[in-house]
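Lab meeting minutes (informal)
Scribe: AK
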Amino acid sequence: MDRGTVGSANRGRLQVEVRTEGRSEVVTPVGELDHHTADLLREPLEHAVEQGRVRLVVDCSGLEFCDSTGLNVLLGARLKAEAAGGGVHLAGMLPVVARVFEITGAEAVFTVHDSLEAALDA
């Protein structure tokens, strides 16, 4: 079930697609996640949890940049999903984004998968 797309595909912007696959809500951000675009990701993640879709899979394969604001959006979604009995799975992170998670230690609090398929199968 495709819920549509929000945002813009322009350079320096973020486009977010949301769809349901089995028991997972798949959220796919494409572009740059920073303080200017964070709400474009925060809103669909929060909406999913509010609707009872608490197994969130974030397909990071198109995420070109993530700053501390973006990291905080994902950490906040993780807390809300876990409080509701679910969790956040991150999939397909590019090295530049994975490095942010490694440096901050955030990779230790997320379930990280090499690919979307692996995250959906977990």
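Next up, CB showed the second protein from the same session:
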Amino acid sequence: MTTAKDIMHPGAQWIPAHETLDRAAQLMRELNVGALPIADNDERLCGILTDRDIVIGCVAMGHDPARVTAGDMAKGTPRWIEADADVNEVLHEMQDHRIRRLPVIENKRLVGMISEADLAQHLPEGQLAAWVEQIYARA
């Protein structure tokens, strides 16, 4: 059985909810990623911040990224998956919630992230094609 841990990109890092968006952008640059899970004071997932969120939700709105926090941008219910979850559960979670990145949790700790690129690298062609068709199908 292939698990979430088998296909994830290891070493994901939290951004604390109190951290500003300019610092988040710097961290994204340092880590060469386009998204960071947002952690509350108890290191629980409270959202995911993307580079697009910073540009569209802050800069394009005329806000100062040095004054807006990651927590200010956290919206909705964050989704995640256990490290030992079967890859079919990963696909189901991403498909049902139409999300492109999924934090992987093990023993209540962030251990990685799964992105569409990770799926493309690790899934058999037929399974990937079926998933792509479902997630990008027009309603």
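CB comment: Strands lie at 9-10, 15-16, 35-39, 45-50, 81-82, 101-106, 109-115.
No objections, moving on.
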